[in-house]
């Protein structure tokens, strides 16, 4: 069964906690988005985990250097997954993987901006990465890009890792992403931009469960 990850991309601490409360019944993973974690820091990881001990917390650090050093405090604060850029040195990715393993947690390699995504995915998987993230970022989405072709490529490699997909997923595309091999579907704007985030999350849950 595919997991749903809700991307919390507000900067506001209280609004983030309130949105998490609304959507938590329908999602598996609460993601603290990159702008949000930079703005709020470790305090938000601790608060979110305390409020939702039954949910996985993904901290979208998008680490680029000093992998083990940067990721360790976020795992210690309650993060279950942190992200590291596939564009970083393999030593950086290995550092985050090491920190994750030391904390019974997971490292996700984010392929955003990576040219040869298959090559990086294969090498990261061989080095113990837990999740490979296919990701069309907000700026690339604004330029008309989508993650669907890359998802087919990465899922088709048959690596011994979970595959996550992010980048404008909504109710019209969520089932085809699951059918294309996504183990984790990430949804941000389609939930937080909806008139009722809870209703939107509920609808997406039903679609994923029926896919
Ligand atoms: O990771 C994200 C982005 O880079 C900002 O940190 C988003 O959270 C991710 O793309 C999911 O959001 P949507 O694309 O709006 O579904």
Automatic annotation (TrEMBL):
Its EC number is 4.1.2.43. One of its GO terms (molecular function) is orotidine-5'-phosphate decarboxylase activity. Transmembrane segments: none annotated. The keyword Secreted does not apply. GO terms for biological process: 'de novo' pyrimidine nucleobase biosynthetic process; formaldehyde assimilation via ribulose monophosphate cycle; L-ascorbic acid catabolic process. Pfam families: OMPdecase. It catalyses: D-ribulose 5-phosphate + formaldehyde = D-arabino-hex-3-ulose 6-phosphate. It is an enzyme of class 4 (lyase). Gene3D superfamilies: Aldolase class I (3.20.20.70). Pathway: One-carbon metabolism; formaldehyde assimilation via RuMP pathway; D-fructose 6-phosphate from D-ribulose 5-phosphate and formaldehyde: step 1/2. Keywords: Carbohydrate metabolism, Lyase. SUPFAM superfamilies: Ribulose-phoshate binding barrel. The keyword Lyase applies. Residues 3-204 form the Orotidine 5'-phosphate decarboxylase domain. InterPro entries: 3-hexulose-6-phosphate_synth, Aldolase_TIM, HPS/KGPDC, OMPdeCOase_dom, RibuloseP-bd_barrel. Belongs to the HPS/KGPDC family. HPS subfamily. This is 3-hexulose-6-phosphate synthase. It comes from Methylophaga aminisulfidivorans MP.
């Amino acid at each position: 069964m595919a997991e749903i990850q809700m991307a919390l991309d507000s900067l506001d601490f209280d609004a983030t906690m309130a949105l998490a409360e609304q959507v938590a019944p329908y999602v598996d993973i609460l993601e603290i988005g990159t702008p949000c974690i930079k703005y709020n820091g470790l305090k938000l990881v601790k608060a979110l985990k305390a409020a939702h001990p039954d949910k996985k917390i993904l901290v979208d650090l998008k680490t680029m250097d000093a992998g083990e050093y940067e990721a360790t405090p976020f795992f210690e604060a309650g993060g279950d997954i942190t992200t590291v850029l596939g564009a970083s040195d393999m030593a950086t990715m290995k550092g985050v993987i090491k920190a994750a393993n030391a904390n019974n947690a997971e490292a996700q390699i984010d392929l955003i901006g990576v040219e040869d995504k298959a090559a990086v995915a294969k090498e990261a998987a061989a080095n113990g990465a837990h999740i490979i993230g296919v990701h069309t970022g907000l700026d690339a989405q604004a330029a008309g890009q989508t993650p669907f072709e890359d998802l087919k490529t990465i899922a088709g490699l048959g690596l011994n890792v979970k595959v996550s997909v992010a980048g404008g997923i909504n109710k019209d595309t969520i089932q085809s992403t699951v059918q294309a091999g996504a183990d984790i579907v990430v949804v941000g704007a389609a939930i937080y931009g909806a008139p009722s985030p809870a209703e939107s999350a509920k609808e997406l849950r039903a679609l994923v469960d029926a896919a």
